[in-house]
Every structure is written in structure tokens, then in C-alpha cells.
Amino acid sequence: MTRRKNGHDYEISDKLWNKIKPLLPLPKPKKKPGRPRKDDRKIMSGIFYVLLTGCQWKLLPRFYGAPSTVHDRFQEWRKSSLFEKMWKAGLLDYDKNKGLEWEWQAIDGAMTKAPLGGAGTGANPTDRGKKGTKRSLLTDGKGIPLSVTVDGANRHDKKLVKGTLDAIIFQRPSLDEGIQNICMDKGYDFPDIRELVKEYGYIAHIRRRGEENIRKKEIPGYRARRWVVERTHSWLNRFRRLLIRWEKKIENYYAMLQLACACITFRAAGLFG
């Protein structure tokens, strides 16, 4: 992704577009002749602009085309699972070039405001009961997103673990290929969660509630593990469309999350500059 000097226009790089273009669904045949179809690359740049800046669809610069056209194409591509396919393609490239770190995975939840409500929202316990949404994220050992699920902000993190593990979009290696650990904070310290992750083939690393916070940085050879998922949540919040959930329809919110995860993965693979 490149940004023009005027500060308004974002364009997809040739390298990234060559990865996205083969994933595009075939356009629907027109019932009657009319205006030619707006360029897909320009439309995708407009969708990236909305994701990155958080602007309303109707305020999208005309550089990308009519806002209604860009939004309609977003809906068309969302229904074809394009954004999930982009995320998978990014993971495939990253795994091929750098290698996903399956040995140490991490899971954590994060809450954001959702003033318009809709499915997957609920009373936010940290924001005076206002509408909020919670996303549960699983990453590899370097913070590359592998899975994301959404529920109401009042939903406990432990209730999202199974859905998050079931939603991994890239095939996990078999356990014969190596041990897989999963790092979780004290909010997941429950016997049923420890048993659940064991059933999925993980070795759980969960700090117990009430356990003293030992300064492990002073221990020789110690390497922090769980912070990578917190950093990835921070990366997601840099996409201003995700900082506050403005999508009332949960499927549109998922599409934006998937696109953001694709961006993070493509960037890590060296394709999103």
C-alpha cells in the first residue's frame, strides 16, 4: 500500500495487487447495458482507505469512485469470502517464506466500543454498560493472526476459546511434527479451559489467579511469549475502522477484521509496503 503526497489517496502496490487479483470472484453478468464496471483495483484501494482511516462510506473521496459503488463491491466481495481468502493467501506466503511459529501460540481477547449495536455486541462492563464488542484472537509465536472470533463485550474470555480454536483458517501441523504450546492470561485459569486446550492437542501455559508476578526477565534464558497477541491487538486498533465498531452487521465487521488480518500478514510477508 502506498500513500500519495496529498494525504488522501491510498493505492495498492503492484506486488500486492498481483496476489489479490487471482482471488477476485468473477463479476456478475449485467442484466442490461450501462456504465462500464469500475476498476477493481481502485475499488479495493477505496476499501483499504475506509479500513485505515475509519471514515464513513459516504465520505470516501471520489478518487475511488462513488461511495455507493465502493460499498456495493465490498458487500459483493464479502459474500464471496474474498477477505478471508486474502488472509489465507497471506498466511500461505508467510509460511512459505518465513515459516509460521506453531510451537508457541497465544490467545487473548480485547474489547472495543460498538455504539450502533447489532449482533455480537453487549453491555461493556468497563464502559458504564454501553454497547461493546469483544474479539478473541489467536496468533502464532510471532504474532501472526491465525484466528479471530467476535461476541458481546459482556461475554467472558473463556467462553470464546473453543470458537477461536475452531476458527483457525490455516491448517495446523499434526502433533507428530512437534509440540504446540498455548499461552493465556489469568482470565483463562479454569479447569475446563485447561482440559479443553488439552483436547485440542495443546500444552497450556496459564498463569494461575493469585499467583505472584515474578520478575522473570531476570531469569537467564527467559523469553516472554504471550505479549505477541497483545501487540497484534494493538496492530488491529491502528486500523481506525476497528478502533470503534461502526458495522451494525456482524458479517461486515468480520470482513473488516479479516481484511486487517490479511494486511498484517501480507506486511509480515513483505508484500504490504
Automatic annotation (TrEMBL):
One Pfam family name from the record? DUF4096
Domain Insertion element IS402-like, first and last residues per copy:
12-87
Which region ranges are annotated with the description Disordered?
Answer: 116-135
Task: Provide the Transposase IS4-like domain boundaries.
Answer: 106-262
For this UniProt entry, the molecular function terms from Gene Ontology, in alphabetical order, are: DNA binding; transposase activity
Q: Which GO terms describe its biological process?
A: DNA transposition
Q: Which InterPro entries match?
A: IS402-like_dom (IPR025161), Transposase_11 (IPR002559)
What is the superkingdom listed in this entry's lineage? Archaea
Instruction: Tell me the PANTHER family matching this sequence.
Output: PHP DOMAIN PROTEIN, TRANSPOSASE
Query: What is the name of the protein in this document?
Result: Transposase
* Organism of origin: Methanosarcina mazei
